[in-house]
Every structure is written in structure tokens, then in C-alpha cells.
Design brief:
This protein has helices at residues 3-13, 15-18, 47-55, 151-160, 172-176, 246-254, 270-273, 280-289, 312-323, and strands spanning 83-89, 92-97, 100-104, 138-140, 164-168, 183-186, 191-193, 199-203, 225-228, 235-237, 259-263, 294-298, 331-332, 339-341. By secondary structure, the chain is α/β, with parallel strands linked by helices. Strand 1 and strand 2 form a beta hairpin. Residues 13-19 have low confidence and may be disordered.
Length: 351
Amino acid sequence: MNSWRALLLAAVAMLPACSLREGWNGPVSDHFDGKRFSNDEPFEKSLLAVLRFYLSGDTGPWTRDLDEPPAAAPAASVGDGRLVATVVNHATVLVQADGLNILTDPVWSQRVSPLSWIGPRRYRPPAIRFEDLPPIDVVLISHNHYDHLDLATVARLAEHHDPVFVVPLGDAEFLSGIGIKRIVELDWWQAWTLPNGRRIHGVPVQHWSGRSVLPSDQNRSLWQGYVIETAAGPVYFAGDTGYADHFERAHERFGNMRLALLPIGAYEPRWFLAYQHMNPAEAVQAHLELRAQTSLAIHWGTFKLTAEGQMQPRQDLIAARRGRGLSDVSFQVPDFGEAIEIAPLTTEAGG
């Protein structure tokens, strides 16, 4: 069955449960009206448009290979001033810096779906075996879509590692519902102090939230990226985002990024996805606006969620990078499981 149709059926099956969500209950702000969150530039997705997207056209070629051997187990930790990033799959990245191990949007499940037997199924295994993870200190969740908030993986991490989970406003409800207690909720531009004394900041991105196609479930919790302070410069994790001015605003506040983790996949067709997902050319522009010394590509090649082929994001990124005169080390597409040590921050970044 077409994975989009399967995801639609799974989402419809979950409508009764999703309709019972309370959502965030907090003060009104410039991006929260008391009931729903919004972007600086409003975007409305009609149910008809969602149905048209899920039921439309063919996708580019994808090849499933779940027998890929795992990569080597990561180091237990790295010392002050060092920064190592390992892309596990999709938006799951192990960030190791200054003695801490931070995991972003962890997904080890076979499907990103409300149901275990239907919905988008992985085409590549996680590059790092769950059992090979080093002790995880902090987990960052960017928003509540199934390919970013995987409750089965979250529960395993809580049981085996007991990390602090940092989530956007409104998403603590999902984690506390499965018994997790160590949760920090952040708004845009709010910060939380890490165990090593440095801070993690929630930052705006352009996206949306919801665990079903039910209109009443949309945007009841926030979506965001993060900036992680490290000894030698900030790390930017976009999570999932369309292209907008929030990259420039992050740079204005935090300066040149030592590392940026930027999504390059799930961008076709543009009539539906341009607002919420960058294409590779826009990711290159984001890299330049963040003045990132190094960017790593995420959010591609694992789950067939949209119309482009499995390898098209990588090919389009290479073309976009060359078109802007960037080196292949400035914006990399690392092999899944490859531990990339990021050089110290230089005065000139983004090139």
C-alpha cells in the first residue's frame, strides 16, 4: 500500500484518542492565542489539501535495505572543547560535547505512525544500535510529529538512560502520559541550563504540530529548534522547518554557528510542502545565514514521507552547494553512523 495512504488510514484510526488531548494551557503570546500556536507568517492547511497530498501521485525510487551492518559504537563521551556529531537516521543525531551526550528527535522504531502495523516503515536501519548508545544525558524533541516524537523510543531511553527530555510547550503531556518525569518545556527564546553549566535555547522555526488529521488537534503544542551552547561555539538543531527569517534571527542572537543540523528532505510537492519543509537549496541558504562553519544534512533517506526519491535530497544538495561555491566539507551529507568531529570555530563561517 502507498505509504501516504497507509499513514492517512493510521491517522484516521487515531482520531478519537487525539480529540481528547488537552493541549497547552498558558498565557497568550505573540505566537499563542490561548488555544493554538502559530508561525510569524500564518499558514492554513485545509483538510481537503491534506487529503489531496496523501492521495496524490507517485514517488521517486526508494530501496529498502534493513540488513545494513551497524556502525561502530560511539565514544562514551568527549572532553571540553571537542564536538562530535553522529547522524543515526532521519533527524536523530548524537551530539557529544563538553562531557555531555545529547540526542535529538530519537527514532528507533520500525514505523513512524500511530500504529505499529501500518504507516511509513523505515528503509534503512538506525546506524547505531540502541544497545550501543553511550549514556544519554539530554534528549531534545523538536515537535510532536511521529517521525520526531517516537514514544516507543522515548520510553526505552527513559528506562535505560533516564535523561532529561527537553520539549516544546505542550509536549510534556505526551511524555508524562507514559510515566516520564524528567521533562523541561521551553518556549521560543527560553533557555535551560545543562548539567555542565551551559545552556540549551529553544528557537523559532516554521512548522506545525499535530498527531492526527483532525483539525482540532492541530497546533495545540509548539514546534521549535534548539541552540546548544558548547565550549567552542553554538550548535543549531533545526528539527523540521520551512525556510523563513528565523535563521537570521538565530544568528543575530547567538553569532556564527560551529555546527548546524539542517533538514534537506521531505520537500516535494512544493505546492504543499514549501511552507513547512526546506528543499536543499533553501537549506544551503540557511547554512549561509547561520554563518555555520559546518552543516550536516538530516531528515532524508530513512522514511518515505513525500514525493522525492530516496537519494534526490543528497543530489539536490550537492548541486545547490556547488551553485553557491561551497566546499563539500562546509555542508556535508555524512554516512549514517559516521562520527564527524567538528573543527574549532573560525572567524569566517558559512563558506
